[in-house]
Specification:
The protein is of the alpha+beta class and 175 residues long. Helices cover 36% and strands 25% of the residues. A hairpin with a 2-residue loop joins β6 and β7. α3 crosses α6. The model has no long low-confidence stretch (mean pLDDT 91).
């Protein structure tokens, strides 16, 4: 069995995309996953599975669709991969507030041509690496959803974002 962290995209942000974490734990345990836990209500699931990553993500998405009638993309990392994301920390030398430092996780490696074409920023920084983009916004994370949509359009794929505090806690919980 492999320890995984599943990151659900855009759940429990508003009134319409609600997923009960206690019920989700029950659903996933019923599907045969081991050591199922959740962290916060924002869609962080820790579990054990023998499935490969892509199959696990697809099965979790299917389970949520069946039980909650929602289309929720799921990004999966092994405990070791998530620890590697934390260890890489390319902006740790400038990021002074972990609530304003985040990582956007993607299911697949980012297209190098799209990454090379990303525009420069003013007042904030980002570092794309493999299947993640580290983002430091010293003035705070914009709540404007247009920013998220633009980012997805630029990269050609949508991801799911977690602040640095959450990434650290998820790594801690996988140990």
């Amino acid at each position: 069995m492999t320890r995984y962290v599943a990151l659900l995209r855009a759940v429990n942000l508003g009134a319409t995309r609600r997923v009960s974490m206690p019920r989700l734990r029950e659903v996933l345990a019923e599907r045969g996953y081991g050591a199922v836990r959740t962290h916060m209500a924002s869609g962080n699931v820790l579990l054990e599975s023998s499935l490969p990553e892509a199959e696990l993500a697809a099965d979790l998405t299917a389970a949520i669709a069946e039980r909650f009638a929602l289309d929720v993309p799921v990004v999966v990392r092994t405990a070791e991969e998530l620890a590697g994301v934390l260890a890489a920390d390319p902006l740790g030398h400038v990021a002074t507030d972990p609530a304003r430092y985040s990582v956007t996780f993607y299911a697949q490696p980012l297209d190098p041509e799209r990454v090379a074409a990303l525009p420069p920023t003013e007042g904030w920084q980002y570092v794309p690496r493999g299947r993640e983009v580290y983002v430091w916004r010293p003035d705070g994370v914009e709540s404007d959803r247009r920013t998220e949509r633009t980012w997805a359009q630029l990269l050609g794929t949508a991801g799911t974002n977690r602040n640095w505090n959450t990434v650290r806690k998820l790594v801690e919980l996988t140990r």
